[in-house]
Amino acid sequence: MRILIVEDEKQLADATAAILKKEQYFVDVVYDGQDGLDYALSDIYDLVLLDIMLPKINGIDVLKQVRAHGLSVPVMLLTARTEVGDKIRGLDAGADDYLTKPFNKGELLARVRALTRRKGDIPPNELAFGDVKLNQSTYELICGEEAVKLGGKEFKIMQMLMYAPKNIISKDEFIEKIWGYDTEAEYNSIEVYISFLRKKLGVIGSTVKIKASRGIGYYLEYTEA
Ligand code: CA
User: Fold this and answer.
1) Number of Cβ within a 10 Å radius of residue 201
2) Exposed end of the chain (fewer CB within 10 Å): N or C?
């Protein structure tokens, strides 16, 4: 489990890193927004702790650029008590949570556990979005009383979409994560699996839609029936 801390208050950054390292997380620390963005885009992190007021690039812009690159890594903003507007802007920009400074060790670790669990070694059994659930043990896609079993690749595609339903996931990202780098898989393989998934969503009566963002990738959309 690898965590990136982007925080220009050096003492706070280093103290936070020390707490997390003691809990056996791997931690990298950077002290400005430009380094934060460069490190985050390496896509090796399971969680990013991101300060808002940062030198060079502010945290909100770092976050927007991370999301614009299609990365769904959980991001927890570190905010001062007075920065209420920033929290809202941060959540709108795709943050998963925020932690108000000063925070204590227990609060930090609880939030970190909650956010890393989504992506971590012990995933929760079910992911949920709109009216569908994805059972990660049985590979079943469930809507109300109806369920349908997904094939391995379908499951992984659905899982990636449900981890970060509102983010656009690029075809490259699907191919990299599901088939790996040295692969013969092509863009139309993704299209084929997406069409299978759309049919299965229809079969179980879900109103969740897999939307295509032309030339970029796919995301989930839910409109209540
Ligand atoms: Ca700061």
Assistant:
1) 22
2) C
Token couple for 175: 């191919």
- Mean local confidence (pLDDT), 199-215: 93
Using the mean position of ligand 1's atoms as its centre, give its distance from the Cα of residue 140 in Å: 44
Report which of 89, 48, 92, 36 is spatially closest to residue 72, judged by C-alpha positions.
48
Q: How far is the CA of 100 from the centre of ligand 1 (A)?
A: 12
155-199 pLDDT, tens digit per residue, is 999 999 998 887 899 988 898 888 876 667 777 888 999 999 999
Residue written as token pair 């795709």: 94
Phi/psi for 141 (5° steps) reads: -100, 125
Find all residues with CB under 8 Å of 136, minimum gap 6, and list them: 123, 124, 125, 126, 127, 159
67 C-alpha vs ligand 1 centroid, how far in Å? Answer: 21
The average pLDDT across 85-106 equals 86
Centroid of ligand 1 to alpha carbon of 109 (angstroms): 20
Could you tell me the distance, in angstroms and rounded to a whole number, from the CA of residue 210 to the centre of ligand 1? 38
